[in-house]
Specification:
By secondary structure, the chain is an alpha+beta fold. It has 2 helices and 7 strands. It is 17% helix and 31% strand.
Length: 129
């Protein structure tokens, strides 16, 4: 009986110490481009919600968005997103988070940016459309 109680208490402590934490840096997920100017973009999580990487209640151009963050696309990422128009608004892409920005030494880009941005910002890599 004593062994059973000790085992039950140990099991309870293990359960309490294990928390579900979606580590988005190891997985891919989809985002929708809200606004993009010169590779700077505001994107919205489509199939996940995460208060760690995105923010809620972001007012932009007369609407309020949830699960949004700011990012900058590399030139290689921009090439992967070739579309018939230069406007990427509304495009849904598959990305993964990076801990540091991608090196892009031969990438020239304009200095314009979106007129306001969410407080949360992440480095990403586009892995598909």
């Amino acid at each position: 009986m004593r062994t059973f109680i000790i085992g039950l208490v140990a099991f309870c402590f293990l359960q309490l110490s294990c928390t579900k934490n979606d580590n988005l840096t190891n997985t891919t997920f989809r985002v929708k481009i809200i606004k993009e100017v010169c590779n700077d973009a505001i994107v919205q999580l489509v199939d996940k919600q995460s208060s760690e990487i995105a923010e809620n209640g972001f007012p932009f151009e007369g609407k309020t968005y949830d699960n949004v963050f700011f990012t900058t696309f590399s030139c290689a990422d921009r090439t992967k997103m070739q579309t018939l128009t230069s406007d990427l608004t509304g495009l849904v892409i598959t990305v993964k988070l990076l801990s540091t920005p991608k090196e892009d030494p031969n990438c020239a880009r304009c200095l314009a940016t979106v007129n306001s941005r969410p407080g949360k910002s992440n480095f990403i890599e586009v892995v598909g459309l």
